[in-house]
Fold each of these.
Amino acid sequence: MKFDVVIGLEVHVQIRTNTKMFCGCSNRYGAEPNTLVCPVCMGYPGVLPVPNKEGIRNTLLAGLMCECKIALYSKFDRKSYFYPDMPKNYQISQYDLPFCEDGKLVISGKGLSQELIATKTIGITRIHLEEDVAKSTHFKQYSGIDFNRAGVPLMEVVSEPDMTTPDEAYAYLTALKQIMQYADISDCDMEKGQMRCDVNISVKPSGSPTLNAKTEVKNLNSFKAIHKSLHYEIERQSDVLESKGHLVQQTRGWNDDIGETYIMRTKEDAADYRYFPEPDLMPIEISSDYLEELKKEVPETPGQRCARFIQEFSIPEYDASVLTSDKACADYFEQCIRFGSNPKKTSNWIMVELLRELSQSNKTFDKCPISPKDFAELILLITDNTINGKIAKTVFNDMFSSRKSASVIIDEKGLKQVTDTKEILEFVKRAIENNPIPVQQLKEGKASALNFLVGQVMKFSKGKANPQLASEMIKKESS
Ligand SMILES: [Zn+2]
């Protein structure tokens, strides 16, 4: 039997603000547990919430980046539930009047399996704003609760069930993360819980118009886990249908160690949360003037920047898409160009050498030991033949570990390229004298012989000869 897969994602993104959503506590990750708290976020009786303008602004900005309709009249609601991570026994969220609705996100590129995905538009149902809940940690004998996270502004981005493969879900998450980073809304670091995702997935016989009951998978803490859990669920649900079983709506968890989902509970309906308008907060009215101002602040999207890079710097589409997939990388590249380095050469060196070194040393661009100015200088020294490509790699590695500039390293180690023809000629003569057979082969037109002889010259010159000059002179001297 063949099956169709229907996938929708609910993604929570913590918004980067100075303070929490409804109180003045600092919104900061990594502090001692329960040190960033106050009566409001601890849910003491009689306290009143005050909305954080910055949290609302960033939610609207995310909506504009995803081409959503922005509600000029919106409100907060209480979502009631009883759990230790929520001291008020309700969470302030949004129910029927979210800030943003009906948007879209274009996905393309590669999924986790490295297979190219056809460009596709995924609908965004809504983006609403709520407060995060406390973080519970379960130890052997007891559980601990850290209220530092309680009240942190959190937006929920709900997609339409438009995805049909785990790779598409992966590409969607990548695109969403890029947008949040480009608009400076969040770093979306999943390890820090800044981005969290629940997936909804259902499987039906190919072509069938009726949807089967869906499964919601929770506790997914990496893009990889999301991808794997979707694969697992497709298998599991297809097996149920194959064996004439019946799929029921349920919430499942993900066990990353064994790579399986497990049943948590059958799904609550929205009514279980007893939503009602938050009586302590006025509805939020957004003036069209404010919205117009905000529209001017919407930054370039990754796609727009990619297109601009191709146009402005005449680099291939592949280069542009790699560079712009990470905002910090795109910024770095543009800064290098501003210091005068050649765009295509810069792009090659970033994509091949710098990205590799950063990933091997587990660093991000903000911790990059080579400044864009120094990186541009290296490229300029290659372009003007002060050093050749091979020496440049040594210099680059040295720059990365010592943080010294290229010119300092070249001076200190005497790595300047030899372009003095007299000096090179001596190496060329030696190479010819020592290697009669390759010389003979070269005369017979064998290209590999030339490479060998150039290699000899490079060896004699300790890698410093200009290989182009060497090649020309070998041809001349051996004929
Ligand atoms: Zn507080």
Amino acid sequence: MSPLLNSYDMGGIPLANRVVMAPMTRCRAKSMVPDAQTVLYYRQRAGAGLIISEGSQISAEGTGYLYTPGIYTPEQIDGWKKVTKAVHDEGGKMFVQLWHVGRMSHVSLQKNGAAPVSSVAVAAQNSNCYAYGENGEPGPIQASEPRALETREVAGITSDFVTAGVEAMRAGFDGVEIHGANGYIFDQFANGALNTRVDQYGGSTMNRLRFTLETVDALAREVGNSRVGIRLSPFGRLYDMQPFDDEENTWLTLANELSKRDLAYVHLSDQTAFTGAGIGREFLGRFRDAYEGTLILTGALDQDAGEELVELGLTDLAGFGRPFVSNPDLVERFRNGWPLSPVDMPTLYTGGEKGYADYPAYSEQLESTSADSD
Ligand SMILES: Cc1cc2nc3c(=O)[nH]c(=O)nc-3n(C[C@H](O)[C@H](O)[C@H](O)COP(=O)(O)O)c2cc1C
């Protein structure tokens, strides 16, 4: 049998298989609240061993895109409760991805038109968020210049992560994933080319990692270490993340530190398919040696590549993003060798109901083909 289909004990959380649905922003939450379509979309995908929700902002300040769901108002938390119940009813497990975009925001999304916040007051070049333009219309728009957080303010963001994490557990999630990847706030502190701070959150490797580790520790204290995962994208170049001298050492130091904390997992997001830069096999091996717990790897995998990586022991779980958009029954397709449906790229982030919860399972596809030929 495919090693991806074996069950897996993720630090006491039993997973039916080793196939993970990677977090994917779908911009379908009209008022930033998960609704009936969100419930249906995740219910359809509950055959994954683990679902990780789309990025869910922990505060208004942490928002970078209109129509992404939050996890900080009573309505949002109530919306998520219905999602987790649906996934659990189908026998699935689900973590929420806790998200603060840092500088990848726009003044029109911030309270009183304030500047977004980051490690330093440097805007991400050629990087769009999704906000209101000058004409008041929603659309892609260059991220605004941020202001640097005061030293004492950093703990306030950690505290927002904790509040959201506690609410997430009340909403029935099996755990929380800190979004430490893809050029958002934690990357903005870890990156030595960007972070030129001179306080305890900048400079040395450990200083640049301090905010990440303080947030991991604070969440672990409140929701339990086995309920906290984190996503990282070593060598990722999204949103103007530039190479820096200490780069490999930074990620391996973080791997060592996280290893001591006995977390639910570390989730590596390989961006090679998106930007040409990312995680090679050699680095993956070194990260694997440095980090002892459960590892998830995502990024342009297919079934064969996922199986190979699990068999080689380079990852424990294999994450799939786009294949899960267009194949709600992805695990069943893997199990039966059924073909995969292609994803419709234009409706990934827009398009209302089209391209969201309307992709059929393979059995439904067959039924409609045979009905057509009747
Ligand atoms: C539509 C879309 C939305 C995404 N949103 C998120 C997100 O909210 N958080 C995140 O960490 N990664 C996000 N990603 C990255 C995916 O989790 C994944 O790493 C990436 O798609 C590569 O995996 P794949 O080749 O299997 O699609 C997104 C990717 C896509 C295609």
